[in-house]
Specification:
single chain, 12 strands
Length: about 375
């Protein structure tokens, strides 16, 4: 899957530090704005305890997890929509992503420069929102102008398009993002090619100090109040602490560190999993002695399309899918035992794949 999450935020809020923790890429992380100029792209393994369990049961020769692409985009500044601070380039990088991870600074530290001179996560969020909204408003107005020319030729699609775009325009002009505009999904799809920046799903990451990694702080409470109507997830992550964890050599050392901090797993794991959900991705598995593998598909994908992720021939020649629910695989302990218990299902072309399905495809080319 080629879907990508883009990490955005003001300069110097911890985006590149988080990106370095997420991937093996060495994005420049420094105590000054614009430490990142070109977008860094990392392909990140998605932590999944189900894959580990299947490995234990099958004992395969190799295990392949599923992945998600994360893009570290340079910090936006006020005026970016008008080209300030390399704004046009950065906004273009955001347009190329499918979802947004918005990192907001929620910690005090006199040694770390803030581009606005003080810590205020709600203000910082609004600066980013306004720049993205202004760019979207520009895109919407240009499309209305283009469709208006077609309207003179009695183009029915142009008339409908203008009606939809006017809803977006009025919504954006009130300082609200396109994702919350009162437009149904079919009408949104009508303008997918506009790639509106504020139409992308968003996840907020509060970069906090170590003491706030579990329960947050006053800054995170203020941000959560500000985004309560957006239906967006908010995560607390201490980028500095995550960087320390990544320096520890053994799993045992990392777990001991986490327990001391009152955490059950690295915040980075939660972030990766949240990105995966944000992109509306799910996982199915194939399990055999040669390989246990997790495969990425989008929600709502049918069995033939899911098979096509493995190879296009699987989709073209699809006959049926043999499906085992993950819980049944774990309960009975092997594919043979599942079959003997009558828990393997045979599904056809209309089957909607469920997250966690263990699948085997029959095809003929």
């Amino acid at each position: 899957m080629a879907l990508k999450c883009g990490i955005v935020g003001l300069p110097n809020v911890g985006k590149s530090t988080l990106f370095n923790c997420l991937s093996n890429a060495e994005a420049l992380s420094a105590n000054y704005p614009f430490a990142t100029i070109e977008p860094n792209i990392g392909v990140v393994n998605v932590p999944d305890a189900r894959l580990t369990k299947l490995e234990e049961l099958v004992n395969p020769q190799k295990v392949i997890p599923t992945t998600v692409e994360i893009v570290d985009i340079a910090g936006l500044v006020e005026g970016a929509s008008k080209g300030e601070g390399l704004g046009n380039q950065f906004l273009g990088n955001i347009r190329d992503t499918d979802a947004i991870v918005h990192v907001v600074r929620c910690f005090d530290d006199d040694n770390v420069v803030h581009v606005s001179g003080s810590v205020d996560p709600v203000r910082d969020k609004e600066i980013i929102d306004i720049e993205l909204q202004l760019k979207d408003l520009e895109s919407v107005e240009k499309r209305i102008e283009k469709l208006s020319r077609r309207l003179k030729a009695n183009d029915k699609d142009a008339k409908k398009g203008i009606e939809i775009l006017k809803v977006y325009k009025e919504h954006l002009e009130t300082g609200q993002s396109a994702r919350t505009a009162p437009i149904d999904e079919d009408d949104r799809a009508f303008f997918n090619d506009l790639h509106l920046l504020t139409n992308k799903p968003v996840l907020y990451v509060c970069n906090v100090d170590e003491d706030s990694a579990v329960d947050g702080n006053e800054y995170t409470k203020a941000l959560e109040e500000a985004v309560k109507d957006e239906n967006a997830e908010v995560l607390y992550i201490s980028a500095g602490m995550e960087a320390e964890i990544m320096q520890l050599e053994t799993f045992e050392e990392r777990m001991e560190f986490l327990q001391e901090m009152g955490l059950s797993e690295p915040g980075i794991n939660k972030l990766i999993q949240s990105c995966y959900r944000l992109l509306k991705l799910i996982t199915y598995f194939t399990a055999g002695v040669k390989e246990v593998r997790a495969w990425t598909i989008t929600e709502g994908m049918k069995a033939p399309q899911a098979a096509g992720v493995i190879h296009t021939d699987f989709e073209k020649g699809f006959i049926r899918a043999e499906v085992i629910a993950y819980q049944d695989y774990v309960k009975y302990g092997s594919e043979k035992a599942v079959k003997e218990a009558g828990k393997m299902r045979v599904e056809g072309k209309e089957y909607l794949v469920v997250d966690g399905d263990v699948m085997h495809f029959r095809f003929n080319v």
